[in-house]
Amino acid sequence: MLFFVFISCFSFIFLYNSIYLKPLPHWTSEMRLVSPFFLKDLSIATIIRFIRTGFYSLPLKMSFKNKSFSSKVVKFDDSSNISSSGSCSNSEMSLLDLPELVLECILERLPPEGLGGMASVCSSMRERCMSDHLWEKHLKQKWGEVIGPAAYREWQYHILYNKESSFFNQPEQKGLMNYLAKLWPVSLIRSNCNNDRSSCLKMKHSLPIDSIMSWYLALESGKFWFPAQVYNRENGHVGFLLSCYDAELCYDPKTDTFQARYPPHGRRAVAIETGVTWDRVRSAPIDTSPYDLHTSNSLNELRPGDHIEIQWRRNKEFPYGWWYGIVGHLELCDGDENYCRCPESDMVALEFNQYAPGSRWRRTIINKKDHKEEGNEGDGFYAGIRKLYGDGEIRTWNHLWPAAVLE
């Protein structure tokens, strides 16, 4: 028995040593780069630095002396001339010859600027980098908090009535838009339009206008106006503190802020505000017109201490804004939780503690049973109520709390 065990172990050791001592082809050391395990050591910072420090100055091909690959690729050279020679030499490997999983994971890690740089390399890479699933993540990460159903409808309206996009026709481009100039409108189109009209039109329409990438770039361009809401409108005017009003916004890529246009208030002209920061912008939580009363469905749930937003307008010619408040106790209640019967009443007290005690804006009473617009020309008109459930919204309002009590 021991003899057979000894023979088996000896055979295994001999075979192992023979394999270990046999030299492997030298190209196997380079093949490690295309292993999925390579992704564990691939940092996003390295990829970004690779894109920003001269993507076009680096070779697209890796040398494999004893391996041959081919890839049908239409490439752009640095002079914006298109080469359709079509194939790599037998001793080189194209970027597109990377395993599908590796290439897809690299693209998913790239920021928008990186995808724009990759897309300008060749036609095959362009198709990959324009995929909706790659851009959907970037759209949600950067724009998810400020665009909603109303903004999407505005974009669909633009697609329907604008066959061509003019968002990229700008004389000076920087960052992501600089990469896109290599792909679509300005530099390549101008250089080719004089010689080949059909080539010009083909290049200009290479980006589908109904793609997520196209919507992302329209938002980034600084030319697309979309509906959203702005906290503390008109640079925090004292008359609008702790409120949120509907507006049309346009992004300013130079300052990373927004320009806002507010609808007219009666005879008052359209108000325009610049330099609106990201923390003051949100998508409308209720998809309704600022002139329509919101039908509240949470009135019977209101309890003292709940955080709410309520529609208010100065007069009936004005649009509603959303104002932050807290549910308080009725006058006959002493505030003791053990004996509080406020939730059972048909009336609910709303408090706006940013105003000083005794101010006419400090407190109001709303009828829950027969809820409709209530008020007068002196105190304004209160309308729909929206209960706040998420801590994020409450933190946003607390962040905007005025430094001094309002009169």
TrEMBL record:
Gene3D superfamilies linked: 1.20.1280.50
Full protein name: F-box domain-containing protein
SUPFAM superfamilies per UniProt: F-box domain
The F-box domain, residue ranges: 92-138
Transmembrane annotation, as ranges: none
